[in-house]
Design a protein that fits this description.
alpha/beta, 7-stranded mixed β-sheet, 6-stranded mixed β-sheet, 27 strands, elongated, binds adenosine-5'-diphosphate, binds magnesium ion
């Protein structure tokens, strides 16, 4: 590795950061080392003029990670160094943060031109993966900083997206608290987790071997001082941050574990940002049971927000399929709603009513969506402004967005059905009518537009940001500048006449200030009071005492006016931060309106229908379609998706099916049918219409899936182990209100083991859980379970057979598949004809012996026979025989029977 670095011939790779300053170091290096000692765990970006420089090991790390050249400074030949231009630093820093590094920014605290000795420098903020505002972060994505606090039986979890001030906390208690907390943490996938250094994220009791691979899915793990997590420190800090409402106002009363975790987050943010983070002024405490719970495995399996296989891109996700939102806030709300759909029937119904009203009114809906498109990311703009990393253009973007609010409000309110319309329902009235109360922020918008010029420069440094007429002194100082142009013209004119040089020019540049330029041919006419400044090829540049005076006056006017501009800008910024609460309320209202408009738009576009909520735990779907596959097929112009029906009823005291067992060949559509059921429930409980002719359902409390092999294999657990862990979770925690999908369970182990486990699992589901379940399997043998369990219903995916081979119809039909078609599928896949032929022969023989065995067996308790190996069957048979009660004749018969079986 070291060989690849360009070292400019000096021995710099072996030098560690010195322990202490020594006399041989330059003052600059001593200053650097002092700053570095305060932030040993961060890469220190040290501002030197137009660059941020890194030294020692930091330089080596950065040069490796950023592919930038490693060099050394002239004065410290043996110190490795690399740097990035300050104006391009943001993207380099973002790359380091994404790789999990921390970055400390050490700025010049005074103007180098004015500094007497060495320029004063200070670390102004520390950027960490969980607290940085990454400009490349997609609108819908969140960047969470999380904290976990364990207190006795309780496990508190808090997390904050600083870029949107989305701040939430929850708490688990009882014996499973830690495991539930961990699952919730993994589901969030925060980019940084802070925890007390001495205790570790999940306390000393938790087994590191199981925890570490899981926590590897969380981004950076940052240990902080233990006292940060003490309730006495953290809770009062949180109270101060959230202001007067007190913790009860946020539902945190009695949840000190969650409050402590939240307080620790506030401390961490304040200390790294060196800012109060005033926009973080509210927190939402939630309980897991307030939402349809979708565990982390299921979120992945169903590709709700991320694709299962990263190479397939985001197109296969439900989020992408449903994202017709016009604003970043709407997109984020869609994403979080798909991850935590509702479970409150009344709230769900009122969403449907609102969607319906907007669905039927194309013109007003489009008007609304047009207005929404003008609203930029209010949350992120507010965060930048409040963390003081916003420029003048960010403020104008905020103003431009606020300007669209009245229009959003007006067109949203126009969607409230008029009295007398057939659509009038109280709910639609209240959602769209409420939209009319979206508080406008005209005052703020006006203040911003009035204070700033319409097209300001990027930063405050050059001046020219504040509009004329705002500050009298500023206007005066500026007129020095503009009257200056007139005086320059006057000086130029006078000097031309005095010297008789017609080509004489008075000019300004940033290095030499004001000067008089005279071409070489005229040098003989230069008066004695001209002072030479610079020689060019064709000309000489001079100055005069008058010009020097003038320069000082202009430059000091400029400096003073920039100072005033900065003050006015800060005041405007403070005014915006004071209104943070109002801005965020508007932002939430916009997000909700946008989401409902999106659902309405898609319902109209794709013929989605309004689901019906039923009090009974049923799931009835007529002509349901898989939303993602249907969309992808439509976009590709392929043949249409084949709709399918589904009926499940988990009520007690009925004989309706509560478990569907789907058999049939690979590629037949089993997995699609399963996923489709879950996706429709998720959409329905998110408040969306669904791709089906009709859907009636009882609210689902949790969705479980066990689907396919996931890439956990790479993390060192075998597919089979993962599968069994997931199945264990389902069997241990599902309720009668849950929806369970088991796809190809048992595939990861030997056929007999797998089949036995699948069999036992199905029995358990029937006897002890009784939830709405779908089970897809290639174990044809399982279809026999229908004889024992009347509520288990066999379905199969249909194929049509022709001499050319089989064709998948993707239709789900009643009854078990009549055979397994494995060899037909293999033929479609292009296996050589000789192999296919031989496989058919083997299969025939096998089936013959199997049939024979079934005929021999009569004991119902031994139904497993058909797939138990012969030796095991004989052993079982012997073990079950009670010799004490056996007559000699029976014993002989048994022997005879066993012999026949062996001959098979
Ligand atoms: P299985 O689980 O039975 O092996 P899958 O559900 O994985 O089958 O489906 C196999 C392929 O068939 C998928 O590529 C899918 O897009 C397509 N497919 C499945 N169901 C349908 C359907 N109802 N209409 C159209 N295509 C479908
Ligand atoms: Mg499948």
């Amino acid at each position: 590795m070291a060989k690849n670095l360009r070292t400019e011939g000096c021995d710099i790779l072996t030098l560690p950061v010195p322990e202490a300053a020594t006399d041989s170091q330059t003052p600059l290096m001593r200053q650097y080392l002092a700053a570095k000692r305060q932030h040993p765990d961060a890469l220190l970006f040290f501002r030197l003029g137009d660059f941020y420089e890194l030294f020692f090991d930091d330089a080596k790390t950065a040069s490796r990670e950023l592919q930038i050249t490693l060099t050394a400074r002239d004065k410290e030949r043996n110190v490795p160094m690399c740097g990035v231009p300050y104006h391009a630093a943001e993207s380099y820093i973002a790359r380091l943060l994404r790789k999990g590094y921390r970055v400390a920014i050490c700025e010049q605290m005074e103007d180098p031109k004015l500094a007497k000795k060495i320029v004063r420098r200070e670390v102004t903020r520390v950027l960490t993966p969980g607290t940085a505002l990454d400009p490349a972060l997609a609108a819908e994505q969140s960047n969470y900083l999380a904290a976990v606090h364990l207190a006795g039986e309780a496990a508190g979890l808090a997390y904050l997206d600083l870029s949107t001030a989305d701040f939430r906390a929850t708490e688990f208690s009882g014996p499973g608290a830690t495991a539930q907390c961990l699952d919730e943490l993994l589901r969030l996938a925060p980019s940084e987790l802070i925890f007390p250094a001495a205790r570790g994220p999940f306390g000393p009791k938790t087994d590191a071997a199981t925890l570490d691979p899981l926590l590897a899915q969380v981004g950076t793990r940052t240990p902080v001082d233990d006292w940060v997590f003490s309730p006495d420190f953290a809770i009062p800090l949180l109270e101060r941050q959230l202001g007067s409402r007190g913790l009860e106002g946020f539902g945190l009363q009695g949840h000190s574990a969650a409050a402590t975790a939240a307080g620790a987050i506030i401390h961490y943010v304040r200390s790294t940002q060196q800012s109060e983070a005033g926009h973080v002024d509210t927190l939402r405490f939630y309980r897991r049971a307030e939402h349809l719970h979708i565990d982390q495995v299921t979120v992945r399996n169903l590709e709700l927000v991320d694709p299962l296989f990263t190479d397939s891109g985001p197109e296969t996700t439900l989020f992408r399929t449903m994202d017709a939102c016009c604003t970043p806030m709407g997109k984020r709300m869609l994403r979080s709603t798909l991850l935590r759909p509702m479970i409150d029937a009344a709230a769900i119904e009122s969403r449907y009513a609102a969607v319906e009203a907007a669905r039927t009114d194309l013109i007003r809906r489009e008007e609304l969506r047009r207005a929404l498109s003008g609203v930029l990311d209010l949350d992120r703009l507010l965060a930048r402004i409040s963390l003081d990393s916003a420029g003048p253009r960010d403020l104008l973007a905020l103003a431009a967005s606020l300007r669209h609010l009245p229009e959003v409000k007006k067109s949203a309110a126009s969607l409230a059905p008029q009295p007398g319309s057939p659509l009038v329902s109280l709910d639609a009235q209240s959602f769209w009518a409420n939209a009319g109360s979206l508080a406008p922020l005209d005052d703020l918008c006006a203040a911003i537009s009035a204070t700033l010029v319409p097209e300001p420069p990027l930063t405050l440094a050059e001046g020219g940001v504040i509009a004329p007429g705002i500050d009298a002194e500023l206007d005066d100082l500026r007129s020095v500048g503009s009257s200056g142009r007139a005086s320059i013209a006057a000086i130029e004119d006078r000097e031309r006449r005095r010297t008789g040089i017609g080509s004489l020019k008075v000019r300004f540049n940033s290095v030499f200030g004001y000067y008089i330029e005279i071409t070489k041919s005229n040098l003989s006419s230069v008066p004695a009071d001209y002072e030479r400044k610079q020689t060019l090829v064709n000309a000489e540049r001079f100055t005069t005492p008058e010009l020097k005076d003038y320069e000082t006056k202009v430059l000091s006017a400029q400096e003073r006016s920039i100072e005033i501009e900065k003050r006015l800008f800060a005041a405007l910024r403070a005014r915006i931060v004071e209104n943070a609460g109002r801005i965020r309320r508007a932002s939430t209202a916009v997000a909700e309106i946008d989401l409902v408009a999106c659902f309405a738009h898609l319902a109209a576009l794709r013929n989605y229908t309004r689901p019906r909520v039923d009090p009974a735990p049923i799931l009835e779907i007529a002509s349901g379609r898989h939303p993602v596959i249907e969309r992808l097929m439509d976009e590709a112009g392929e043949s249409r998706f084949v709709p399918n029906d589904l009926f499940l009823d988990a009520s007690e005291n009925t004989s309706h099916p509560n478990l569907l067992l789907i058999t049939g060949p690979n590629m037949g559509g089993k997995s699609t049918y399963l996923r489709q059921a879950a996706l429709l429930v998720i959409l329905a409980q998110a408040g969306s219409f669904v791709p089906a002719d009709r859907m009636t359902y009882g609210i689902v409390d949790r969705i479980y899936t066990r689907i396919g092999a996931s890439d956990n294999l790479a993390r060192g657990r075998s597919t089979f182990m993962v599968e069994m862990t997931e199945t264990a979770t389902i069997l241990n925690t599902a309720t009668a209100q849950s929806l369970i999908l088991l796809d190809e369970m048992g595939r990861g182990t030997s056929t007999f083991d797998g089949l036995s486990l699948a069999w036992a699992t199905l029995e358990y589901l029937q006897r002890h859980i009784g939830a709405r379940s779908l089970f897809a399997t290639h174990y044809h043998e399982l279809t026999m379970l229908a004889d024992e369990f009347p509520r288990l219903k066999n379905l199969h995916v249909s194929v049509s057979e022709s001499p050319q081979g089989i064709v998948f119809l993707h239709r789900i039909e009643q009854g078990p598949a009549n055979r397994s078609y494995g060899i037909d599928v293999a033929r479609l896949a292009g296996l050589p004809p000789a192999v296919i032929h031989r496989a058919r022969q083997v299969l025939k023989q096998h089936e013959r012996s199997e049939r024979h065995n079934v005929a021999v067996e009569t004991e119902p308790a031994l139904q497993l026979t058909i797939f138990t190996p012969l030796s095991q069957r004989i052993l079982d048979r012997l073990a079950q025989t009670d010799i004490d009660t056996l007559t000699p004749l029976q014993a002989l018969n048994l022997l005879e029977e066993l012999k026949t079986e062996i001959k098979g």
